[in-house]
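From the shared-data thread, chain only:
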Amino acid sequence: MSIRPHTPLFAACLKTRMRTGFLTVLSTLVLSGCGIMSWFGGEKDPRPPTALKDLKPEITVTILWSREIGVGTDGRRLNLMPALHGGRLYAADAEGRILALDAATGEVLWERETDLPFSGGPEADAEHIILGSSDGDLVVHSARDGAERWHARLDSEVLSVPRIAGPSVLVHTLDDSVYALELGSGNRIWKYSYPAPTLTLRGSSMPAVTDDSVIVGITGGKLVNLELQSGVPRWEITVTPPRGRSELARIADIDADPVIVDQIIYVTTYNGDLAAVDLITGSVFWRRQLSAHAGLAASAGMLYITDSDDLVRAASAADGTDIWKQEALKYRRLSAPAILGNLVAVGDMEGYIHWLDRRDGRLVAQVEVADGPITGRPQVAKGKLYVYGNDGTLAALSAGSPPPPPKPKPKPELTPNPDGTTPRPVKE
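Structure, as tokens:
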């Protein structure tokens, strides 16, 4: 058996709960390095990334500032991305460094060294910065100066971004548990646990929060609505049932963050479907086959998705049908999409940010920002795009609006010949 590390499965890496035999060895190797190069025979990646073509930019993209803030993800696939609040940008690296920067200038306002192996976050509000670690730590620091306020130990690695929900902190851990803790003290309010399948993608979706619900995508293609105050499930549905004969083929995880718009949850599964689900009842309005784990974004009745082949798609939120798809970035290990005005931006494996026109999906610009992959979703605030590369590059970008797409040339009006035979163009 040959396992290829650069397929979407290994691009996202794996988490396993094996006991004996081959998959135990696979689990150990993947969890220790999150990638296997030649251990299973050294075959080349059968799906090499599409080479970038020369592109005449249609818009001006400006890197407003760029700064190296640490080791980034330290070569691992982690869910570290910048958080924006009150004109400040907060970021952390895999060695425990936390920084607060002026979002407009990139000036460092304060910096803290914690020595914790951060793996998910940060989340921020006016008073708090919250991060999770690969050792199962959940820590809250002061947004004012970075001083630690409390520290809690959870039962598993934190690979999703924690969420602040009123007086609570919500976090989804790698073992498919969801915790609610008191924001002020770290005391546990409730814990919801779900028995995970044998083999799953290495990742955890970020909870989506409403006034009284927590929506979480979990392994096995399931989506659950938890009561915010108690953690009691209101409903649980299977968006995509596991398919296939092997454990690998049956992976159907929801690692992309669910998106809620107007009481409708939009969600994608790996090896599965894109679906729209009623927030109140859990009823599925529609579903279509589409595998994705990087993420999706929604705006103005449209969904924008990075699928598992790294095609960027626009689909109708009404029924999921494709409006357009962009194949020029196929297999380039794209990030989830971010929406900035009339543009969609995605990062890739070589540190580029690619800009697509939202209306028709054409590529209108590309700019190199980092020296390596950009796997975290770019963040948007006040007309700027904030990018955090896996190498520790943190940058702010601005972009002009694309011109309208070219209109097709009208077909010439035809009029029949006097004898009723072959039409001819009307003379101007």
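Helices lie at 8-12, 22-33.
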